[in-house]
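Hi R.,

Here's the chain you asked about this morning:
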Amino acid sequence: MAKQQKIKGKAEEAAGKAKETVGRTVGNERMTVEGQAKKSKGAARQAKEKTKDVFKH
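And here is the predicted structure, written out as tokens:
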């Protein structure tokens, strides 16, 4: 289960980065901000899973 969450976090982070890049390219500030938020959410999910792994062992 933890591995799925890590993968989900990486995917979320990648999608956010892509959305942020597209937003900057086309000059859409809202899309850029949404991409940054999604990227941060993915990074937070990964950090949470890494923390759980540390305390699991």
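One quick note: The chain is about 95% helix and 0% strand.

Cheers,
M.
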